[in-house]
Amino acid sequence: MLKIKEHRDETPSIKTIRFFEKLDADPGQFAMVWVPGVDEFPMSISYAGKHFGITYQVVGDGTKALAKMRVGEKIGIRGPYGRGFEIKGKRLLVVAGGTGMAALGLLVEAAKARRSAVDLVLGARTSKELLFEARAKRAGARVHVSTDDGSKGFKGLATELAKSALDDGEYDLICACGPERMIVGLLRIAKGRHMKMQASLERMMKCGIGICDSCALDGKHVCKDGPVFDSDELEAFEELGKTKLDLSGRKTPI
Amino acid sequence: MTDLSVELCGLRLKNPTMLASGVLDETGKSMIEVARAGAGAIVTKSVGREPRAGHPNPSVVELEIGLLNAMGLPNPGIELYAQEVREARKGGVPIIGSVFGGTEEEIAELAGQIAKAGADAVELNLSCPHAKGYGAELGSTPERVEACCRLAKMEARVPIFAKLTPNTSSIAELARAAERGGADGIVAINTLKAMAISPEARMPILGNRFGGLSGPAIKPVGVRCVYEIFEAVKIPIIGVGGVSSGRDAAEYMMAGARAVQIGTAVWTQGTAVFGRVCKELAQLMEDNNCRKVSEMVGVAHAGRP
After folding, report:
1. Exposure of A234 in the CB half-sphere (CA atoms within 13 A)
2. Domain A2-81: top CATH class
3. CA nearest neighbour of B43 among B195, B266, B250, B256
4. Rounded distance, CA A11 to CA A149, Å?
5. Where are the alpha helices (DSSP H) in chain A?
6. Is residue B1 part of a domain?
7. pLDDT at B305 over 70
8. How far apart are CA A198 and CA A214, in angstroms?
9. Which CATH code, of 3.40.50.80, 3.40.50.1580, 3.30.750.24, 3.40.50.10490, is assigned to A91-253?
10. How many CA atoms lie within 13 A of A147 on its CB side?
11. CB contact, 8 Å: B270 with chain A?
12. Catalytic residues of B
């Protein structure tokens, strides 16, 4: 188990935990986080290397319990797991919806480190919930903000703002993480323009290591084959945007 | 030429490797992927009457020596799962439907239902070590094992395999009981009841506290169980527990298994493990001058006093 070095608020609903340990991870990879006596769940690795970290939204009992943990206390970490983003090309359009940005901070930094130009479309419900805006700017990305309520930047969906970015500029690759309807919308736009895209998907996970089938998506496994999939894989999914499995393996509508 | 195909209670398998129950088999499409990867047959997730969420996470603990799990028999219930069985059949290999129940009557009824859904055979889960009221709790006495097999045979017109628990003083006794009840084959072994504790958290790691150990650590136990069962019954045996190479499969076969199931090795090697085990097994058969799998079955019993 690992000791919490720092536990900070990113937004009113999103928090980051940093650890003393080092963990190398690709942008888009995740860890299984165990809150003893409560639950274990997958979370984006938001900082890699020295003092790695995870960033999460407080949504259910498990994350509520995690949010109460203090510096010096210990939690269990398994990982890194899954397949992350593979940065290709010199001009990237990165699209983040809400907490999806947790997985994309590392991507923006890695892309800038290899001297790719990065335009980041950062969407959130409201200005207060914008995640890693300053971090992305520090890394050298051009940031385009959208909020549902118009409290900052473009008023509307990140998908719409991404579309106008694509109208104005030339990109080699779209990388996205956010709500599934956003991914589906972007995929449609990318397909119409014959553009390559990679997106990180989310499904309920139990084992995290590719055996239990809980995160199955058309015979692929989000925990091992993903969570990042490319355009060809995304377009082949019949269940994407339509169904997901519940805890008992029942297909339920998204 | 070595021939890897086997005939098992009327089922024709292109090779003697099967996907073990509980791994990548909650959905039909995943089972098709495993069939494509080279498995000779697929055993489904264990299915019950009603949808069941399973135990709270953590449900797996990764160990150096294997894997500890307490999934807790999650499944969507037989009614919904029937369509996953039908989907899985598109993979082109025999589908063995695994079922669990709280009573002899319930497990028998489910055996009939999953056979009706299209399963080519049924595996009775008499051995899950971590689900209260099910699995090993039903399958721990010879009397109940015999009754489960007898009733299941009446409900399902396909071969019935009894998957037995090693958490008993005599697995051979349980196997004899299954044979008396009319089972067509024995599957051995299920996981060993086990626990891992986090010294920092001062509590068991699994959400269910205890679970089942699988993988390399339990292979010698499984091989010993199959060896004992081979001397106790005449019906075919399917060996399972820690198979991750052709040598492992050969060990089980020489102990008396006609086929093997693979589960935990999917974690370490992915679904490519089926092709790898088959390739290595074919080479071993060639080295042993065996042209057919059946020529290896039980050879380790030769020369015993």
Report:
1. 30
2. mainly beta
3. B266
4. 16
5. 61-67, 105-113, 133-139, 158-168, 180-192, 231-236
6. no
7. no
8. 22
9. 3.40.50.80
10. 13
11. yes
12. 128
* Residue B83 covered by a domain: yes
Q: Which run of H or of E encompasses A197?
A: strand A197-200
Instruction: State ipTM.
Output: 0.93
- Mark A114-147 as b/e (b = at least 16 C-beta within 10 Å): eebbbbbbbbbeeeebbbbbebbeebebebbbbb
Report the gap between the CA of A220 and the closest CA in chain B (Å): 7
State which residues form the domain around B10. 6-301
Please give the full DSSP string across A132-165, using - where no structure is assigned: SHHHHHHHT-EEEEEETT-SSSEES-HHHHHHHH
Over the stretch B36-80, which tens digit does the pLDDT of each residue have? 999 999 999 999 999 999 999 999 999 999 999 999 999 999 999
The shortest CB-CB distance from B71 to any of A37, A212, A224 is to A212
Residues B114 and B79: their CA atoms lie apart, in Å, by: 9
Q: Averaged over A151-162, what is the pLDDT?
A: 96
Omega before residue B189 within 30° of 0, cis:
yes
Q: Determine the Cα–Cα distance for residues B18 and A48; give it in Å rounded to an integer.
A: 39
Strands, E assignment, A10-128:
14-19, 30-35, 39-47, 53-57, 74-81, 91-97, 117-124
CA distance readout (Å), B278 to B129, B231, B250 = 30, 26, 10
Facing residue for A247 by CB, picked from B54, B62, B207: B54
Tell me what the pLDDT averaged over chain B comes to: 96
Whether the Cβ atoms of residue B48 and residue A234 lie closer than 8 Å to each other? no
For residue B67, count CB atoms less than 10 angstroms from its CB and return exposed for 0-12, middle for 13-18, buried for 19 or more: buried
B83 close contact with A: CB closer than 8 A: no
Smallest CA–CA distance, residue A97 to chain B, in Å, is 27
- One-letter identity of residue B146: E
Residue A232, C-beta contacts closer than 8 angstroms, at least 6 positions apart: none
Predicted local distance difference test score (pLDDT) of residue A196: 96
In the predicted structure, residue B304 carries a pLDDT above the cut 80: no
Q: Would you mind telling me the total number of residues written for chain B in this entry?
A: 305
Which pLDDT band, with edges at 50, 70 and 90, does A58 fall under? very high
Q: How many CB atoms are closer than 10 A to CB B134?
A: 24
Strands (E), B56-209: 60-63, 66-69, 95-99, 121-125, 160-163, 185-188, 192-195, 197-198, 203-204
Put simply, the chain B residues between 203 and 242 with a CB less than 8 A from any chain A CB are 203, 205, 207
Residue B288 binned pLDDT confidence (cut-offs 50, 70, 90): confident
Question: How many folded domains does chain B comprise?
Answer: 1
> For chain A, which residues make up each domain, given as ranges?
2-81, 91-253
